Amino acid sequence: MIITSIKPNISRAQAVARFCGRLNSLRHGRPRIVTDFYIPYRFFRLTRSDGRSSTDTFIAADAVTGKLDLIQFDRLPEQGACMPVDTAMVAEERVAEEEAYRLVRESMMRSIFLKGFFKLSRLNVEIELAASAHILYWVGVYERNGRAQLEIINALRGRFEGAKLRELVAEWFQPRQEGGAVSEDLMENRSWKRSAD
Fold first, then answer.
1. Which residues pair with 152 in a beta bridge?
2. How many CB atoms lie within 10 A of CB 102?
3. Which residue, 42, 50, 130, 195, is most buried by CB atoms nearer than 10 A?
4. In degrees, to the nearest 5, what angle opens at C-alpha 136 toward C-alphas 131 and 139?
5. Strand pairing partners for 122?
6. Minimal CA–CA distance to 133: which of 49, 59, 60?
């Protein structure tokens, strides 16, 4: 399928170098496969006003579970920052638009509460859906003792992701795994790219 993705800041070669870093090598060994994987996001414009001034920020929320960490942007990705990608390595949207609004609002109100409960009485928050796009993640697949282990890098922010993202990706790959081992079908899938020898 053809999707619209934000152009990555981390290339595959850079991701491979990080997957092969000393710490990961000690923990997992050498990655057997490095592949791209895309997650759909909705971008919301948040307008916060306190009666004296207002500020706009943009928040990206995943459209798969709604539970991944929100990503904050100073502005919407411009047209030149996006590109079409033809891929099967993409998670499906599961969160309805109405539910996404609710999850984003709850998350933002929790953040406001933690910064100071007294602000809630005069702070107004408006949320508007502004755009949607996919974000690229690099997935490193390691195999140790016959079992697959995943490490994931956000190709925009360049950081390793945590358990929630690994669980999402592992669930998507589950039909391609056999009892936790990396199956021959998975290893031979043309959509995957082997890491450098």
1. 139
2. 13
3. 42
4. 150
5. none
6. 60
